Amino acid sequence: METSWLFEVSWEVCNKVGGIHTVISSKAAQAVSQFGERYVAMGPLLKSNPGFEPCDPPESIVPALERLAAKHVEVSVGRWDIPGRPWAMLIGFRDVFKDPDKLLFQLWNDYGVDSMAGAWDYIEPVLFSTASAMAIKEIGDDMEGVADVYAHFHEWMSGAGVLYLKKHAPGVSTVLTTHATMLGRSMSGSGVDIYAALEEIEPTQEAKAFGVSAKHSMESVSAREADCFTTVSNITRREASNLLGTNPAVVTTNGFNLEALPSRSTWPKSGGLRAGSLWIWQSGSLSASWTRTRPCWWPQAAGTSFTTRASTCCLTASRTSTASLPRRSPTPRWWPSCS
């Protein structure tokens, strides 16, 4: 890792539109600790990129940036204002391809990606991820023989980048992670219990029925062609294997960075009940209902019962000051005592 570079590509870098933004931003500090200044998060250059702080790029990548500019690939370099403050490269992709249809045809010709039904919400991510891969290739060319280069792509939205590198820069090791398949999301969102009969689903037909043929095709092909295909849970592994036709090589289970949460000894001094609720969550004792997890020292908000669901309790706690709460509520006989 001392000389290796890691590029992490997602539509949600400096662009908080979903959960992958949290996934990447919460683990960036760990990536920086492993790769140092050679970890780079890559996202789309948009009218607004919250958290992005432009600055001068590292000298080692300046020649590559100049070559990219000559190819009409605009790259804005800076820091991402998250823990670890990693380098961020935002890729301008709209002026790179004068005729996107040629790119889509090439994807069909090279890999069999069916983009015929793809609308702009499909084409735009394809353009972005391909332009991002072009940037990785240019930087990787300058590192050849000096450092290993890894490129980690998230979801179908960055899958075209995997395919570009496989063809134009096979020396770059590629990883594709799916957090949930596009087809699975679409079917589940329509009320279909996909896990009840997962093996009986015919993916191509269902993708057409749910209007996600192009996205499903891109995801299936990029999962197949990536050097390493991963997912985030065993149930998603089963989903991906059946719907995409490729069994993930690794399950990188989602985690949670506990260092950002206050310890038990400090929570009463910082935010009262709100910090306390975080401590309970951190301790692993928060379940769907606080009926069996509410500690005996936890004050009961006026007008609520012990069986209030966790979400409601958190809301009540966050809106109620400690001064307005009784000092202590009677503890039911079945309640576990504090040790």
Defining traits:
single chain; 339 residues; alpha/beta; Rossmann fold; 2 domains; 11 helices; 9 strands; 13% strand; globular
Report on this model:
- This protein has 339 residues and is an alpha/beta fold.
- It folds into two domains: 247 residues, Glycogen Phosphorylase B (Rossmann fold), CATH 3.40.50.2000; 62 residues, no CATH class.
- Helices cover 39% and strands 13% of the residues.
- The C terminus is likely disordered.
Q: What is the CATH class name of the largest domain?
A: Alpha Beta
Q: Strand pairing plus helix content: what structural class?
A: alpha/beta
Instruction: Indicate the low-confidence ranges by residue numbers.
Output: 285-339
Oligomer: single chain
Number of helices: 11
For the report, how would you describe the main beta sheet?
Answer: 9 strands, mixed
Share of residues in strands: 5-15%
Numbering strands along the chain, what is their spatial order in the largest sheet?
Answer: 3-4-5-2-1-6-7-8-9
What is the CATH homologous superfamily assignment of the largest domain? Glycogen Phosphorylase B
**Global mean pLDDT:** 84
Question: In angstroms, what is the radius of gyration?
Answer: 24 Å
Short description:
The chain has helices at 19-35, 62-70, 100-111, 120-143, 159-168, 182-189, 203-209, 213-225, 234-244, 273-282, 310-319, and strands spanning 5-9, 39-44, 52-54, 74-80, 87-92, 149-154, 173-178, 228-231, 250-251. The chain is of the alpha/beta class and 339 residues long. The relative contact order is 0.09.
